[in-house]
Design a protein that fits this description.
This protein is an alpha/beta fold and about 290 residues long. It folds into 2 domains: about 160 residues, Rossmann fold (3-Layer(aba) Sandwich), CATH 3.40.50; about 120 residues, Orthogonal Bundle (N-(1-d-carboxylethyl)-l-norvaline Dehydrogenase, domain 2). The protein is built from 13 helices and 8 strands. Strands 3-2-1-4-5-6-7-8 form an 8-stranded mixed sheet, with helices on both faces. The longest helix is centred in the middle third of the chain and has 29 residues. The termini are far apart. The model has no long low-confidence stretch (mean pLDDT about 95).
Length: about 290
């Protein structure tokens, strides 16, 4: 297939590279020159004339940072993509923004698929993402083989915005897991349990979920190198809280976790992993680990 991939960030670049390795003709576009240089080093072709590339494509895909970026990219794709082609977006965005994009594509003769992903950039590089899709089912069935290089676990959830909502549900639980760890680890540390012992026992216990085990790899060494930064998690929490408001679902614990993330920002930890909220609770408890 001839594909155009918009947004080659930490997630988009490995996804585009996997498509290239699977034998597809992939051209990429990004507003960040450094990301484009990395894409070129990975063997990907630049879409120097994006409109022309889209006009000749079988499909366009994107991995974008927020609502505004999706809406801007979608408008361009809808203008140039030929009838019968598809637009597949993997971004974490609001349900409302995605629904607006669906309306934009309705009269174009192009199909719009929402394929959100669960997993970090390391899982994207390894082809171990979980895919959650919604949109026209026939189109989804057609592209499933195309996306097997992203991950073997794939779910089709419905014709509309189900994939967007499912991603928010998953990220709610990820954010809340970090808050749970922050309190549990601080309690144990303040009581005299060794940091490495805490992680070893938690990792072998009934609460050792995949996300806890993944975090333990770095955090057991107090390494807060980000797979997902504090501002990125704040953005997702804001999307989650907004959807809670729209659906009249009280998300009290999530609102508290947002305040913890805000405290991490205030401490200057914006470029650290969102698990830096562990240090927020430690400070509140008078614990000095570093």
């Amino acid at each position: 297939m001839k594909l155009v991939f918009l947004g080659v960030g930490k997630m988009g670049l490995p996804m585009a590279t996997h498509l290239l390795a699977a034998g597809h003709a992939v051209q990429v576009h990004d507003t960040d020159a450094q990301r484009l240089a990395l894409a070129q080093a990975a063997g990907l072709t630049m879409a120097t004339d994006l409109g022309a590339a889209l006009a000749q494509a079988d499909g366009a895909m994107s991995s974008l940072p927020h609502d505004a970026a999706l809406q801007s990219a979608a408008a361009l794709v809808a203008q140039h993509l030929p009838q019968g082609a598809f637009y597949l977006d993997t971004s974490t965005v609001s349900v409302a923004a995605s629904a607006a994009v669906a309306k934009l594509f309705a009269p174009t003769g192009c199909d719009y698929l929402r394929v959100t992903v669960s997993g970090n950039n390391h899982m994207a590089e390894a082809g171990q993402l979980t895919l959650m899709a919604s949109g026209p089912q026939a189109v989804w069935q057609r592209v499933v083989p195309l996306l097997k290089s992203w991950g073997s676990v794939q779910f089709y959830l419905g014709e509309g915005e189900q994939a967007r909502l499912m991603k928010l549900v998953i990220n709610l639980m990820i954010g809340q897991t970090s808050a749970m760890l922050a309190e549990a680890l601080s309690l144990g540390s303040k009581g005299g349990l060794a940091w490495t012992d805490l992680w070893q026992v938690i990792g072998a216990s009934a609460v050792a979920s995949p996300i806890v085990k993944a975090k333990a790899v770095q955090l057991s060494q107090r390494d807060f190198t980000p797979t997902f930064t504090v501002p990125q998690m704040l953005k997702d929490i804001d999307l989650i809280l907004a959807e809670g408001d729209a659906l009249q679902v009280p998300l009290l614990q999530t609102a508290m976790t947002r305040q913890m993330m805000q405290s991490a920002l205030a401490q200057g930890w914006a470029e650290q992993d969102y698990a830096a909220i562990i240090k927020v609770v430690e400070q509140s408890a008078g614990i000095h680990q570093e």
